[in-house]
Specification:
- β5 and β6 form a beta hairpin.
- It is built from 23 helices and 6 strands.
- The chain has 3 domains: 89 residues, 3-Layer(aba) Sandwich (Glutaredoxin); 120 residues, Glutathione S-transferase Yfyf (Class Pi), Chain A, domain 2 (Up-down Bundle); 174 residues, Up-down Bundle (Glutathione S-transferase Yfyf (Class Pi), Chain A, domain 2), CATH 1.20.1050.
- α2 packs parallel to α4, α5 packs antiparallel against α6 and α13 runs parallel beside α15.
- About 3% of the residues have low confidence.
- It is mainly α and 423 residues long.
């Protein structure tokens, strides 16, 4: 069974699915298949643990990339409790949770490259430190790049403390278990790819606070199993940036209104939170705005709610009912030349005030370069007024802080085109 390398790219797009019965039948057939299959997601540090362990053992396996926005029936069948990756399927039997999977791999293939020490106390110590990494690094690191101000400062201080504690446990050893690369190293090393994101978001240097840990990371990267598995640090940073800015409409609207809010990032690498599933039981997707305990779903509906809930600040929809209807129509419509005609000589689509249609369209400004480059045309030539409107919109702090950089969007589109064989 061939080992298919995972892509070092951004999340997969949803290409549609077969009928539910055929997918369930396929999932059942997959669970009856002999061999090793890994259900994973390219940037997941938890899935990377499993890939490294399999590589260290020299185990051939089939890699299956999961679309975490549209999880496969096989994943849902294999991990009905948490419904998340990674899952290792060995001769039809699913094993879940990364550290449990790594221990399973070590026990099923014991004759090659032992990952846990033989002595019981040393094994207990290795499990303790791997569990420490599991409980601390990802959660603290996520708060660090997700939050700002005091929240980010607290996460930064906590992460530095965690790194120093791990450095103390490493000491002068080559690896955490001594001279042999093992269980704790596999638990921690995928996060080396995330160091750049942590440093860039919080303004500190991991090498300055934990130089021995950084040296250990470089030694680990000399191993083929690690070097071929870990994501490029800059790709991880782009991925995080895409997560932060994915739903710009709602964030632009809240910024225009000056509304203070708590931002909660959904864990795209794992199961959707109970709060999301409860708040949006129909579509089970983001964005969801929760105001005084009441959830509002779908981005354009959320923007209208924001406008109505805070009516005294920067109105986003016009007061006249017909003008409001027109704004709703154009917000739901995309055709560049018709949009050009609708914009006319106005500053914004609603006139002098930045409003509902502008918010609906503004996040796509960062995609203009990809459209132009892919299709060989110039938006400025085809729709110069829309291009000028886009530049004016980008001068607004609410927009500039919410939309992605055009070059990053183009790079993501290029990678996805290659991944799915689109010329």
């Amino acid at each position: 069974m061939p080992h298919q390398h995972p892509p070092s790219t951004l999340p997969p797009i949803n290409r549609g699915r077969e009928g539910p019965s055929s997918e369930r039948d396929r999932a059942m057939a997959d669970l009856e298949t002999k061999g090793v299959v890994l259900l994973d997601f390219w940037v997941s540090p938890f899935g990377q643990r499993c890939r490294i362990a399999l590589a260290e053992k020299g185990v051939e396996y089939e890699y299956r990339e999961e679309n975490l926005g549209d999880k496969s029936p096989l994943l849902l069948k294999s991990n009905p409790v948490h419904k998340k990756i990674p899952v290792l399927i060995h001769d039809g039997k699913p094993v879940c949770e990364s550290l449990i999977i790594v221990q399973y791999i070590d026990e099923v293939w014991p004759d090659c490259a032992p990952l846990l020490p033989a002595e019981p106390y040393a094994r207990a110590q290795a499990r303790f430190w791997a569990d420490f990494v599991d409980k601390k690094i990802y959660e603290c690191g996520t708060r660090l790049w997700k939050l700002k101000g005091e929240g980010q400062a607290a996460a930064k201080e906590e992460l530095i403390g965690i790194l120093k504690l791990l450095e103390g446990e490493l000491g002068d050893k080559k690896y955490f278990g001594g001279d042999a690369f093992g269980f704790v190293d596999i638990a921690l090393v995928p996060f080396v790819s995330w160091f750049y994101t942590y440093e860039t978001c919080a303004g500190f240097s991991v090498e300055e606070v934990a130089p021995k840990l950084v040296a250990w990371g470089k030694r680990c990267m000399e191993r083929e199993s690690v070097a071929k598995t870990l994501s490029d640090p800059h790709k991880v940073y782009e991925f995080v940036g895409a997560l932060k800015k994915r739903f710009g409409r709602c964030r632009i609207a809240l910024a225009e209104k000056g509304v203070e809010y708590e931002y909660r990032e959904e864990n795209i690498l794992g199961a959707k939170s109970p709060l999301l599933l409860k708040s949006n039981p129909v579509y089970k997707k983001i964005p969801v705005l929760i105001h005084d305990g009441k959830p509002v779903c779908e981005s354009l509906i959320i923007v209208q709610y924001i406008d109505e809930a805070w009516p005294d600040r920067a109105p986003l929809l016009p007061a006249d009912p017909y003008a409001r209807a027109q704004a709703r129509f154009w917000a739901d419509f995309v055709d560049m030349k018709l949009l050009e005609g609708e914009l006319g000589a106005k500053k914004y689509f609603g006139g002098d005030a930045f409003g509902f249609v502008d918010i609906a369209l503004a996040p796509f400004v960062s995609w203009f370069y990809s459209y132009e480059t892919s299709a060989g045309f110039s938006i400025e030539e085809a729709a110069p007024k829309v291009a000028a409107w886009a530049k004016r919109s980008m001068e607004r702090e609410s927009v500039a802080n919410a939309v992605s950089h055009p070059d990053k969007i183009y790079e993501m589109v290029g990678v996805l085109k290659k991944k799915f064989g689109v010329e």
